[in-house]
């Protein structure tokens, strides 16, 4: 696609304004915000400058070819260089177009990951545990920090439910397409006759933006304390340390059950704000459903997004028709990027096509 010169000029103008303001302001809060804006826009500005340089060089070379005062040898050399630049231009145009795509403002945020066992009884809980282990390993590879907020272990292993914070730059941008229903097909460890069962677990990925402005007030929240649901022991038996917060207007409930009640209160309030923010984010996405046609995922938590078929060693992402036969490495977390990167690329391609249609 051809990006208009005026659009390129607007990007560079904005970047130069940020640079100028960074050297002029003394306000610490503004400096922090300008630093974030600069870091986000610099690769875009670099790409734009490279594209403008190539276009300018092509124009100069074409002028040399058209100049009657230039000799045949010089014109021939200029034509060859023009042809070389023409061959590189489409890829450069696409690269800059991707850089210019509107970014989800939460892409760089840390996340809270919620995994819950679905249909399938004990096997669903075991599968939920496998999913958490996969994401924990993937987070480690990315250099992110994982902290369990709350967990409800199942009798046969795995989790009925587990909630964890994953902190690190770009966590939401890479993990946001994991929300939905994950399905597993395999012979459970509890199966005595070797039959393949189908079980499911739901995954929710909530962004943790730096500033959450949702009109939140603790006056709308009911706070209850209760005994932590740990593995037993004197502390669990005697101390009402777990905290449950209920947002009365919406009915949203969060529970934190670490040993420190003070920490539980702080974490519960943070998680509650994030859940309310996520509800608002999903509402906005739903209103934009037509605009989002063709993009990867709707954010619908009930959407079946992926199947892990153990007998065939196959992982299938149903949203984009992706099938891979390295299930063991994906479930181990080592090759989850094979899925994540493809989902991100498909989403970019869909948004780029939409931008082209809109001119």
Can you walk me through this structure?
It is a single chain. Helix 1 runs antiparallel to helix 2 (28-66) and helix 2 (28-66) runs antiparallel to helix 3 (72-100). The chain has 359 residues and is α+β, with helices and mostly antiparallel strands. It has nine helices and eleven strands. The radius of gyration is 26 Å and the shape is flat. It has helices spanning 5-22, 28-66, 72-100, 121-142, 171-175, 234-238, 261-287, 327-331, 337-357, and strands spanning 110-117, 145-153, 159-167, 180-186, 197-208, 221-226, 242-247, 252-256, 304-309, 314-317, 322-324. The longest helix has 39 residues, at 28-66. The chain folds into three domains: 5-100, no CATH class; 110-213 and 300-352, Alpha-Beta Plaits (2-Layer Sandwich), CATH 3.30.70.1660; 218-283, 2-Layer Sandwich (Double Stranded RNA Binding Domain), CATH 3.30.160. Strand 7 (242-247) and strand 8 form a beta hairpin.
